[in-house]
Each structure stands twice: as C-alpha cells, then as structure tokens.
C-alpha cells in the first residue's frame, strides 16, 4: 500500500499576457488591487521578472466567485489547475510510448533487482538487515536510505537538469528511487507482524471499517504531479509545477497529510513496534519533504510561490478557516475529474489485491 505514497512523490490552454513584458495589463491590475484579499497579487502583473512572467503565462485566470459588480474582482490563480485532464488533447502515440516505457522499466527492474537469481534486491536487504537483528532498526534504515536518496536527488534537480536535461534526470531519479522504494515496501509487508505487540484492536467492532475509510481517504491526498504520468515516465518533458487548485486548497502538502493518515491507520491496525518504526520513519521523511518542497518552490518561483503560500496552509483546512482561502461555489468540480476517478478505482482494487501483494512479497524472501 505504501508504494503510492513513497513514489508519489497538462495544464489547460491559458490566455497569454500582453506581448510586451514591460506593459502590464493595468486594467486587470487595478481590479486585482481593489480586491480585499488579492491586492498583493497586483504586483505580480506589474513586474517583468522572467520567473513571474513564466508563471502567469502558464496560469489560469478564472472567476471563483461570480462578479456582481465592477467593485468585485476575479480570483487570480497564479498556480496551475490540479488534476486537469482533457481527453480530447491526449495523443495516442504518447500513451503507446508510455506503455512501452513502462514495460521496459518493469522488465529491467525485474532482472536487475527483483529476480533473486539475477538481481541485487535480496543482497541489498540482507546487507541492511545484517547491521542489526532488529526488524525495527532494519525498517528505519531502509526508509532512511530511500529518503536520503529520494530527497537528495530532488534537491539536486535544478543542477541535474542543467547538466543532463529534464528527461535524463527524471530517468536517473526514477531508476534509483524505484528499487529502493520497492525494497522498503516488500520488507514492510514481509515483516509487519514481527517485533513486539503494543496493542491489539483488530477485534474491536468498527475498527476495520474506520481503518479502511482512513486509508481510502489518504490516497486522495496524492500530490497532483503524480497524475502527470507522461511526465513521470519522461514521455513529456518533466516540469516542476506550481499547483494551486483542488487538494492544494485544503493543504499545500497533500502528500505529507496522506502519508500521515496512512501511517496512523496502519499502525493502529497492526499495533506493533515494526509498524510504529515504519510510521515514524515515513512521517519524518514527509515532514522534511514538506519543508524542502517549499524551499525548492520558493527558489524556483519566488514571489509567485510566496503569494500562493499566503493563501494556503500546511495543516489541512487551516487557510480556509482563517479566511485566507475562499473555496469557489463549484469546488467539488475540481475533484470530479478522471485522475480522481482512477484513484478511486485503484484504491478499491488495491484493497482487494492485498492477498496478491502479500503473496508476491513472501515469494521474494526479503
């Protein structure tokens, strides 16, 4: 189950700014300035910073609230529309290429890592486990190694993309992160009931249903970039997106929130020291990832990110309760989209596929 959160971690056509970067849309700027909550956003239109200009060209200007008079102004979405997917704009060739890339990656992963007769996966697990006879320590070490490599490469993304290009760096990033993530997941599945039992709640009425619901909800907190499968596979050129709608209105770091919910649910259900150590490591990794993600976005997008940061929050719903984020009346439409329908189907399917996942992990003897 954790694979979605470990690994995890096409904007619509948008109107262009005036051709001259030194001639901002003064009428729109005045409208934004007059808005009680968006006055600070007007400066984004009046400056010619290449970073801000790049964001605004890619952004969506929509009316989150109906404009009843000239005194009211539309909400300027500086970032991108999360989980947007227009079926009519998809290219069959790109998705065929994606299928080929996925097949090749899985074949290489099997030969180089999974197959115990040819791969290094079992040797890696044995080497980590040899440092201690404790499954809790091994679990934390596996997470620490993955987190160091995953977050480390993410922090080097700007430098790496300049040296070898966006697609090559994505291949490097995925090629290193994927086997480490898989090893961590398989070890957790195989050893989740090792260690000392702290509590036993599996027989308590209603606990199973509550745990299932918490896990189901956690997958709706996937970071929106996860849905850009063509970029994940480097079929399309990977980009560092600045998302603003959908789940981002609830929390600026949905991946972290979803991981915390998943960890708490599984720890409550399993109730032993191995589950607790796994949750401790994963939550710590995602807390760092939240800080590091903000740092990287601030470095890449500057004032545009700071404006989004002011009207979003790390703690779910905090910006909404504080009045910094006003949900549009049709907010539900930002979730009635193909990616979330796919997540619903995959999450339900993963639940029923648990026996298959456990059986496949046991056969590896990791």
From TrEMBL:
Pfam families: NnrU (PF07298). The chain crosses the membrane at residues 95-114, 137-156, 168-190, 210-235, 338-357. InterPro entries: NnrU_dom. It comes from the Eukaryota. It is a multi-pass membrane protein. Keywords: Membrane, Transmembrane, Transmembrane helix. Residues 139-360 form the NnrU domain. The keyword Transmembrane helix applies. GO terms for biological process: carotene biosynthetic process. Signal peptide: none annotated. The keyword Transmembrane helix applies. Coiled coil: none annotated. GO terms for molecular function: 9,15,9'-tri-cis-zeta-carotene isomerase activity. It is found in: Membrane. One of its GO terms (cellular component) is membrane. This is NnrU domain-containing protein. It comes from Capsella rubella. The lineage of its organism: Eukaryota, Viridiplantae, Streptophyta, Embryophyta, Tracheophyta.
């Amino acid at each position: 189950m954790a694979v979605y959160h470990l690994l995890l971690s096409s904007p619509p056509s948008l109107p262009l700014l005036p051709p001259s970067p030194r001639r901002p849309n003064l009428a729109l700027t005045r409208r934004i300035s007059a808005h009680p909550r968006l006055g600070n956003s007007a400066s984004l239109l009046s400056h010619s910073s290449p970073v801000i200009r790049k964001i605004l060209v890619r952004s969506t200007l929509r009316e989150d609230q109906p404009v009843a008079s000239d005194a009211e102004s539309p909400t300027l979405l500086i970032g991108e529309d999360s989980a947007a997917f227009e079926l009519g704009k998809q290219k069959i060739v790109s998705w065929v290429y994606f299928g080929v890339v996925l097949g090749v990656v899985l074949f290489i992963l099997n030969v180089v890592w999974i197959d115990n007769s040819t791969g290094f996966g079992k040797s890696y697990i044995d080497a980590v486990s040899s440092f201690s006879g404790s499954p809790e320590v091994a679990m934390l070490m596996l997470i620490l190694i993955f987190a160091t490599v995953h977050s480390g490469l993410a922090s080097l993304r700007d430098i790496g993309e300049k040296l070898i290009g966006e697609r090559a760096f994505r291949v490097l990033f995925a090629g290193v992160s994927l086997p480490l993530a898989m090893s961590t997941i398989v070890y957790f599945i195989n050893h989740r009931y090792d260690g000392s039992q702290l509590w036993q709640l599996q027989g308590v009425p209603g606990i199973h249903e509550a745990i299932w619901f918490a896990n189901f909800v956690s997958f709706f907190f996937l970071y929106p970039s996860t849905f850009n499968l063509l970029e994940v596979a480097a079929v399309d050129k990977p980009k560092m997106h600045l998302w603003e709608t959908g789940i981002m209105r609830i929390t600026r770091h949905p991946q972290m929130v979803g991981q915390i919910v998943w960890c708490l649910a599984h720890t409550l259900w399993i109730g032993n020291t191995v589950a607790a150590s796994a949750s401790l490591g994963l939550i710590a990794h995602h807390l760092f990832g939240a800080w590091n993600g903000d740092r990287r976005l601030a470095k890449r997008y500057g004032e545009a990110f700071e404006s989004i940061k002011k009207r979003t929050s790390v703690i779910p719903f905090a910006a909404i309760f504080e009045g910094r984020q006003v949900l549009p009346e049709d907010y539900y439409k930002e979730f009635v989209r193909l990616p979330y329908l796919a997540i619903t189907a995959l999450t339900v399917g993963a639940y029923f596929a648990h026996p298959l996942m456990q059986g496949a992990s046991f056969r590896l003897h990791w």
